[in-house]
Amino acid sequence: MTMERILSRDMYEGSKRGVVLAIECLKGSSKADEWNGNMLQTGDIVEELKIGGLLCVRSPFKNGKHGVQKLLHTSFKKNETSIQVRVRRGRNEFVELQACIVPNEAAGRKHYMLRSIDDPNYAVGFADRTEGDCLAFQGSRNSRVVCALSKAQLQDGYVSYPWERKMRLLTVPNSSCFLSILLLPKASDRIASRYNDVEDTLARANAWLNAAQAFGVPIELMNVQTESLLTKISGETASATVNAGSFSDLSNLANVSLYGFEDYHGVDIGVVRAVRLWYAPIGGEFPLEIDLKEGDSKLGFAISRTPEGFIYISSVIDDDNNDLASTRSGLRDLYREAMSASKLLVISRVSNQKVLPWMVSSTGAIRCFDTVSLSQKLSLHRHALRPISIHVFMWDCTLAFQDEGIEKFKASTPTAMPPTSEVQLPLRPSNESQVLPLPEALLPRSGSESPVWNHDEPELMTDRDTAGEVSFRFHNFSLSSNWV
């Protein structure tokens, strides 16, 4: 007598009359198809178990669920975990499942469940039920689906993310391409106790953007938002602001730049509503690497600053006979392209540090970077023979990537250009004072040697700039004597 017939006879002799081995779903499918006809469902009657390639056990099963668990335990210990389950649904419908035997830790020691081969998230177990109960379960499938739907909830979780590696893949490693400027509301009195409304701040943001674009800065508007900043208020300002800022009058509160409230300690707190303007370069940011050589006496370009606080390349030496850093890097030819497009060649970063205007104070002054200190830093790069890494705003997203990118600017054929002393950028007001780098004569000397002044050069004149206490604007420099 074969082993298969012996097991079948033993199972039959020990079975309980009227009780069958039924399927019980333990874990749902990740494919959201546990209710279709191909997946086992709670209430399906187990007809046959095939473990490995030799053992086959058919219904009825000796000792029901307990006997099958012992059989699964024995097979698992022998590393025979492959199992095929055949179940009966209704009277004549049969479904099969290919699975593997795995421990069911939630049920306790020596308890096992079956995990689907096709969907590892789907697992089923066994239960002892009467055949009538199983048929009732199968008949109430639609109601069970509706019940499961009403109870189903989406679960949240966490996923690890390789931030350090992803941030190195940015256009500028570990630095964002999001650009913005924060405009504080303009104070309407000297002690800054009153501010103009939000509409005025929005109008000034609009004017700043329009003026920058008209000047040739290649940027476009991305978004505008209000930003709340906490401030201290006291005295008449506090009483007037707290009373006027009642949240019951939301229509008036929507356009105020300062509103206040009193916390439970009795402290008057003010909220100033600033405006943040988000913008982006039309063609993105383009990196330039300026390599330096021994014997470079100048970089070959000059920088200036727009009234809106942007630093740009204002002039470039156009001389094919001299091996200048600006020519080797392609900066000269990129500058020509900017002029022909009536755009400024705006510097956005130096050594990956943003050098863009970032705030407008309540007095209207624009916080931006100083051209003098930047010129000094560029000159020190030249003296130390350290490469200069800069990023510039592009006005055409295809320009920097056509004809092998920067090689286009390095290898372009020289064209006829006006004399250096006559070079002026388009859209630039004729009465605009040019901000130029610090002359060679102003660089610090070694030891106690004093700066050497060239009396043949025009006189150095300074004029206080509105952007800060240490920023100056230089006048009366001829272009031929003020290169970095």
Automatic annotation (TrEMBL):
Stated name of the protein: Uncharacterized protein
